[in-house]
Amino acid sequence: AQSVAQPEDQVNVAEGNPLTVKCTYSVSGNPYLFWYVQYPNRGLQFLLKYITGDNLVKGSYGFEAEFNKSQTSFHLKKPSALVSDSALYFCAVSKSGGYQKVTFGIGTKLQVIP
Amino acid sequence: EAGVAQSPRYKIIEKRQSVAFWCNPISGHATLYWYQQILGQGPKLLIQFQNNGVVDDSQLPKDRFSAERLKGVDSTLKIQPAKLEDSAVYLCASSLDWALRKSSYNEQFFGPGTRLTVL
Q1: I want to staple B4 with a disulfide (CB 3.0 to 4.6 A). Which of A18, A101, B49, B111 is the partner?
Q2: C-alpha angle with apex B109: A72 to A40, nearest 5 degrees?
Q3: Do B42 and A90 count as a contact with CB atoms less than 8 A apart?
Q4: Could you tell me if A106 lies within 8 Å of chain B, comparing CB atoms?
Q5: How crowded is residue B71: how many other Cβ atoms within 10 Å of its Cβ?
Q6: For residue B83, what are the CA distances in angstroms to A75, A89, B40, B88?
Q7: Torsion-angle region of residue B51: left (phi > 0), alpha (psi -120 to 50) or beta?
Q8: Could you tell me if B99 lies within 8 Å of chain A, comparing CB atoms?
Q9: Per-residue pLDDT reduced to its tens digit, A81-90
Q10: pLDDT tens-place string over residues B52-72
Q11: Contact partners, residue A22, CB within 8 Å, separation at least 6
């Protein structure tokens, strides 16, 4: 069975500092990996994904994530955090190919402190 | 373009009552998902439709939950009878048809959710 682990319930970072939100996964075969963000009282929004190719993927709002196959990780990063980045972040995994079920992690709350 | 629409936004019911949620996906999205998100947890897939056919319902508690997408567009999720542990946010999402071979096919667009409280 596939799974996602987000080891930190909450990450606090000062505005302007770099941020990292951690994610590790388990899936048979090649993974598709995703990050979604959930702002208060709003639905989840797609942020970025890794399908194949370059291990560093860039997404919306200046976020990027690095796929590391040997460590089965897909950490979310941003060089300079904004207060408006404060939200709940979900990592997700599926098997590669069409019509595959996506499994989400439990989420990490990011708090950017002014 | 209009996003995924869900109604109602909030619902409070007594245990053993029934409840239904409605979802209208983004126009042209063939794949529709229902997720259950319990407080403090990530979304859990309940059922996935491809047009009006079911792709995956392995985690749907079929003794009390049912879902349909009769015309391959909007969908209804029903709980009958509800239990206390069904209190959660029910999320609907949609995505493009994988068969279209577009690279964005697996990017899901989520609605605002329906918050269900079972008393």
Answers
A1: B111
A2: 85
A3: yes
A4: yes
A5: 9
A6: 37, 29, 19, 11
A7: left
A8: yes
A9: 999 999 999 9
A10: 899 999 999 999 999 999 888
A11: A6, A7, A8, A73, A75, A76, A108
